[in-house]
């Protein structure tokens, strides 16, 4: 294909304000924080509320019973709702199997918040550079913290 034809097709693609090329140009001009804010835009609630609830899921998790010592858990959830959890116990991260407890609560949160704008996640440039998972982290909770997190999750589910 001659360079002039490629250039003409590129110009045509950029002229279409609803096309992927025009969107990619606009998206690339955003700084990294603006890109994340554009992608992670809940339909309901706020990202702050969602992040707090994800942390409550970690704190309330029955998986703490399986861990020894002063562990730390990390939870990540991507735009499709895929949930992953890691333990950092002795400096070496190990991925754990996601419990049914976590999957059920994350699914409830995803159905309510719809935190990723799927009208733009479909674009390749977003999937490559702007589609960061949401993260939560927690250190081993006390029995009181674990119970409080369970109650807050129960209250949130009841209210929504």
What summary fits the major beta sheet?
Answer: 4 strands, antiparallel
Return Rg in Å: 20 Å
Instruction: Count up the helices.
Output: 8
Instruction: Estimate the helix proportion, in percent.
Output: 40-55%
Question: Which structural class best describes the helix and strand composition?
Answer: alpha+beta
- Average pLDDT score: 86
The quaternary state of the protein chains shown equals single chain
Strand order of the largest sheet: 3-2-1-4
Sequence of secondary-structure elements: HHHHEEEHHHEH
Percent strand equals: 5-15%
Number of strands: 4
Low-pLDDT runs: none
Describe this structure in words.
By secondary structure, this protein is an alpha+beta fold. The chain has a domain at 43-116 and 131-159. The protein has helices spanning 3-15, 20-28, 32-39, 47-60, 100-113, 118-121, 124-129, 143-159, and strands at residues 72-77, 83-88, 93-96, 134-139. It has a four-stranded antiparallel sheet with strand order 3-2-1-4, with helices on one face. The chain starts with a helix and ends with a helix. The mean pLDDT is 86.
Brief summary of the model shown:
The protein is α+β, with helices and mostly antiparallel strands. Helix content is about 55%, strand content about 15%.
């Amino acid at each position: 294909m001659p360079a002039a034809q490629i250039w003409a097709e590129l110009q045509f693609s950029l002229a279409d304000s609803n096309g992927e090329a025009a969107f990619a140009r606009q998206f690339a001009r955003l700084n990294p924080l603006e890109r994340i804010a554009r992608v992670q835009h809940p339909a309901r609630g706020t990202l702050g509320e969602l992040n707090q609830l994800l942390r409550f899921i970690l704190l309330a998790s029955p998986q703490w019973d399986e861990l020894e010592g002063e562990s730390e858990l990390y939870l990540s959830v991507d735009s499709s709702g895929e949930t992953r959890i890691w333990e950092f116990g002795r400096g070496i991260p190990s991925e754990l199997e996601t419990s049914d407890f976590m999957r059920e609560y994350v699914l409830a949160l995803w159905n309510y918040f719809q935190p990723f704008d799927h009208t733009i996640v479909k674009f390749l440039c977003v999937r490559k550079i702007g589609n960061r998972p949401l993260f939560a982290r927690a250190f081993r909770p006390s029995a009181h913290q674990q119970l409080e997190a369970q109650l807050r999750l129960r209250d949130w589910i009841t209210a929504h």
